[in-house]
Amino acid sequence: MEINLEWKDKYLVGVEEIDTQHKQFFSLIVQAYKLPDRSIANQDADRFIHDLMRYAIFHFNNEEKLMTDQGYPKLQEQKMEHIRILKELTNRILEAKSKNGEITPILSFMITWFIDHTTFADRDIGLYIRKHSVSQ
User: Fold this and answer.
1) CA-CA distance, 122 to 81, in Å (whole number)?
2) Distance of CA 100 to the CA centre of its chain
3) CA–CA separation, 13 and 124 (whole Å)
4) Is residue 135 predicted with pLDDT exceeding 60?
5) pTM over 0.85
6) Whether the Cβ atoms of residue 21 and residue 59 lie closer than 8 Å to each other
């Protein structure tokens, strides 16, 4: 599968805070893809994977707080998706470490998930917040 490593405006959800974080999240994945050595044994690759995990946790917590503050009706679905993705990411990292393998499958998984999630589920959040915002 061909992975597109170029930011597209279709990933925007129309909420500045979320869009800024999505761009940073996307940038982390792209930076890791650009590493010449993507083996988990490479310190840079290992650091990028852990940075990606930390940023995912930060972003998901932030997004969930924003959804809570705005009364987003599908908050529980989003929380469950965030839990699922963090578990999957953790499992993939542990598998790569146990096999001293490459991080490329982790990155492919994350970019595919990112594109699908931002263009569908997160777009719905953006529409809701722009329509129902209580803080503007």
Assistant:
1) 11
2) 24
3) 8
4) no
5) yes
6) yes
21's enclosing H/E stretch is helix 16-33
Place of tokens 């925007």: 12
- Amino acid code (one letter) for 96: A
Measure the CA angle with vertex 127, ends 126 and 130; round to 5°.
80
CA–CA gap between residue 80 and residue 107 (Å, rounded): 21
* CATH class in words for 23-132: mainly alpha
What Å distances lie between residue 94 and 50, 56, 99, 112, 113, CA to CA? 11, 16, 9, 20, 19
* Six token digits for residue 43: 């310190």
Query: Phi, psi at residue 41, to the nearest 5°?
Result: -70, -20
Residue-wise pLDDT for 16-26, tens only, equals 999 999 999 99
* Residue 105: both structure tokens together: 């499958």
Q: Which SS3 state, helix, strand or coil, does residue 11 take?
A: helix
What is the spatial distance between Cα 110 and Cα 80, in angstroms, rounded to a whole number? Answer: 17
Over the stretch 43-99, which tens digit does the pLDDT of each residue have? 999 999 999 999 999 999 999 999 999 999 999 999 999 999 999 999 999 999 898
